[in-house]
Specification:
elongated; Arc Repressor Mutant, subunit A; mainly alpha; 0% strand
Length: 212
């Protein structure tokens, strides 16, 4: 990332920004794990002075907290938002949800996997992950209930959708886009008990650059 920083700005006293430091921390976390998220290595990566860090974060703990907040905003936030996106049917609602997990979607699978790994090392992070899972499941469950599913069925279907997606992430499954697209109609039918319409599928494919 250092090549993204203009070294002449360092000479004029440029300290970066909160976003620049957080982006570098996130990149280090994803590439090399939590131990790589340390102030001096990040400063070297950014070609900035160590003291510049303290203009934006009180200490490393504050930076780690910012990483968790970023994860919650990006991943939990995008999932909850997807459950409220416009949908005429439950099948369209589930397509909206599936879409966030595709390569062009806002949900960042590598970040989720990294935070779940972190949770194995820190009880406080494990609690955050558990709360995030509860929030995500509640949002999906509520979406099903809005389309007339009873509470018990909505809960089981929500778990089926979510645990399949988390399974993809945890197993680091790599499917090419064409293969994933061919499976999506049957996934939707499995998740909802209903087949998506051709019109819904055409809109979904168009949104994700797959044509009509």
């Amino acid at each position: 990332m250092a090549d993204l920083i203009d070294t002449t700005e360092k000479a004029t006293g440029w300290r970066g920004s909160r976003e620049v430091w957080l982006a570098a921390a996130r990149e280090a976390f994803l590439d090399s794990g939590l131990d790589a998220v340390k102030i001096q290595p990040l400063a070297s990566r950014l070609n900035l002075s160590r003291t510049s860090f303290y203009w934006f974060f009180a200490d490393r703990a504050a930076l780690l907290e910012a990483l968790l907040e970023d994860w919650e905003t990006v991943n939990t936030g995008s999932l909850v938002a997807a459950t409220h996106d416009y949908a005429e049917t439950i099948t369209e609602g589930v397509l909206n949800l599936i879409g966030i997990f595709l390569d062009d979607g806002p949900f960042e699978s590598r970040l989720d996997l990294a935070v779940r790994g972190w949770a194995h090392q820190a009880e406080a992070v494990a609690l955050r992950v558990n709360r995030a899972d509860d929030t995500r499941l509640a949002a999906i469950r509520a979406m099903y209930e809005r389309f007339g599913y009873g509470a018990g069925e909505a809960d089981v279907r929500a778990r089926t959708v979510y645990l399949v997606q988390i399974g993809y992430i945890s197993m680091q499954v790599h499917e090419d886009t064409a293969t994933r697209m061919t499976r999506i109609p049957d996934y939707v039918k499995t998740f909802t008990g209903k087949a998506p319409s051709e019109r819904e599928l055409a809109r979904f494919r168009a949104r994700h650059g797959q044509g009509a």
